[in-house]
Amino acid sequence: METTGTEFGPWLARQLKLTGKSQTELAEKVGVTRAAVSAWVTKRSTPRPEVVALIAEALGTDVATVHTRDTDTTAGLPVGWYHRPEHADRGREMGNAATFAFDADVGVLARETGQNSLDARLVDNGRPVRLRFTLHEITGEKLADFLAAVQWDELYPHYAAVAGDARQKVSRAVKAGLRDLHERDRLVLLRVDDYNAVGLTGDEYDDSVYAAVVRRTLDSHNEANGTSGGSYGLGKATLWGTSRLGMVLINSTLSEPYEGRTEHRVVGRLELPWRRVDDEALAGPAWFGRADPDTPGARIARSWWAEEDTVRRLHLVRENAEPGTSFLVVGAHDVAGLAAGKPLGDDEEPNDNGDELRRMHRRLVDALGRNFWAAMTAADDARPQLEASVRTLRDGRELIAEERVDPAVAEPSRTRALKAFLGGGTVDRLTEAGQVAQATVPLKLPGRDGRSTTGVHEAVLLVTDAVDGEDPANVMAAMRGNRMTVRAKNVPGIPMGANPFQAVLLTGIAAGEKAPYALEAERFLRAAEPPEHNKWMQTEDLTNEYASSAHRRVTTMIHAAHVQVKELLAQPKRKSAAQREGGNLAKRIAPKANPKPRPRAGATARPTLADLQHTVLPDGAWQITGEITIPRGGDGWGARPTAVLAARSGPGFRIAWAEMEGVRDCEVVDGVLRFTPGVQSAVFRAVTDPSTQPVRGGRSGLVVELDLVEGDV
């Protein structure tokens, strides 16, 4: 028999399940013994050519399908939507909380899916994982064909039930999605394809990559060694969160066979809240697939091996057979603030000229470059970890040509610095334009008690001149082994007149194969990252695995890196003629007087808030920029700004900061501003947390108070 697809035995066993036939029934239809059918299923023998036609007839398919076995028989259990029924105790989830962990923002989607693709990269072949984003607006006949393929008529009552319930948090988004679809006859699809990746391998329900992505929440299925970028299993939720309809369709090519197959493993998942449709209460999620004959009543839908035509109609065609996964976000939208202009409101219509698509295209390119420039950078004789591109279509025609993300365009100075490090072209100190200075920064890894040290990791610091016009400058970007930017903040205390620069801090495996305690640093820093993986901070994982004070080790490393940046920028002082000619004489000349001791912090040397500027951000938060005057000796104090809503009488309502950073001559250590010794003033910037504000910014007065803390940390 031909063997172009699955082996005959596993394929036959699957077809018997799908058609609901037993081995005995097939034996009777074909005219052989049950033992013969059993031998086929267990791969001990194959049927004679004249029997193949009888098998095809019994299974309701054609002879070619039995020979090639690259698809399932079309007979048997159907493909459709399975909606999870209400819980037996009548508990209700009014949506998947994971989808609200991030903003519905294509920039966040690019960061999270890019991180997941990096974690899924097949590394043994030395090739990068290739990531492609496709924005596609469909209308008219193409839209009608797509809706028929996803069985829209069956789904619509579910959307109508959600849209009609004003208590639902997602009701507004669903109504906007339905209006976009029905009144404007359009649908925006956003497809994310990766190639040279693992794919959604493994079992349908048990522990596997597939189950972690399609069936579960808060399951990252990443290796326990801490080298992956993701650790919470939340990143995939951005796919569903970016869909106004809560729908994502998936087509995966597997790096290792499942059920004897690798191509066209297709499934869909719908994230809606609890609803009641046709007197049936439903829990929320639904799956699009073939009815699983192994489940009670065959009501549960599982993935299926789809035919080419089905994949085409679902807009899930992959360009080649390279392993990886395609995710299709149905009804994609972007509600975050934009680089220029404001986002469309729920009642605003997009322009027919494609402004909305162009805007989303640009934000995807910018986000990929900003977050993954380092993963896209390699030495001249090597290939990067990641390649990424974005293209935009309208009804199958090119609206914006495919744009490959170039790290040298996104981050020119830092890309130059990293290439110099990877190619061995760094120097000890900057003396000429275009050079890259390199130094090491210690990270003392804590023991389980948080006080002892298990080892000292040497992170790598790179500093280089900023390209003219690069904004913002004087920023240090930090990352771990997958080279996704985790932290990017201004370096405080840079002296006046210093040339603009950019810095990179490489930690863990990113610091190089020979960096001591690289794996231990990966685990430690990964535990210090929140679900967004965009900073290092005190987290529950860090506290549970190490100690409540363990985050101070990160703060100490960052502070040491800031000091080292200034050292690398400083030019060596020229020796005077007396020093050059006097030999050891200079060492015997005593100073005229002892240097004055540093004044102690006292009541008369307290920092004060001298100036304050504010801006109300689109999400209702206040952004505060404050200047603090520091009298002589006042740099021994620490200052903790607090935000309070103004009140006519009584104490004001205190609100929390979402973030705070030192802009000039200060840095934030455990929520306290610490000043550079000897400075007369410092500038900080802070943003309030809108979730702690009873009203949006601008609808009430804001008072910023300065609480002083004596002594160093």
Key terms for this structure?
27% helix, 27% strand, 713 residues, 5-stranded mixed beta sheet, alpha+beta
Your description of this structure?
With 713 residues, the chain is an alpha+beta fold. 27% of the residues lie in helices and 27% in strands. The chain is built from 20 helices and 26 strands. Strands 1, 2, 3, 4, 5, 6, 7, 8, 9, 10, 11 and 12 form a 12-stranded mixed beta sheet that branches. It has a 5-stranded mixed beta sheet with strand order 13-14-17-15-16, sandwiched between helices. Helix 2 crosses helix 3, helix 6 crosses helix 13 and helix 8 packs across helix 9. It is globular, with a radius of gyration of 30 Å. About 7% of the residues have low confidence.
Describe the oligomeric state of these chains in a short phrase: single chain
Calculate Rg over CA atoms: 30 Å
Round the mean pLDDT to the nearest integer and report it.
Answer: 83
Instruction: Report the sheet-strand fraction.
Output: 25-35%
Amount of helix:
25-40%
Q: What structural class do helix, strand and pairing data support?
A: alpha+beta
Major pleated sheet: 12 strands, mixed
* Count of helical regions: 20
DSSP E strands, number: 26
Q: Which residue ranges are poorly predicted, with pLDDT under 50 across at least 5 consecutive positions?
A: 228-233, 337-349, 572-603
Shape: globular
Q: Span between N and C termini?
A: 76 Å
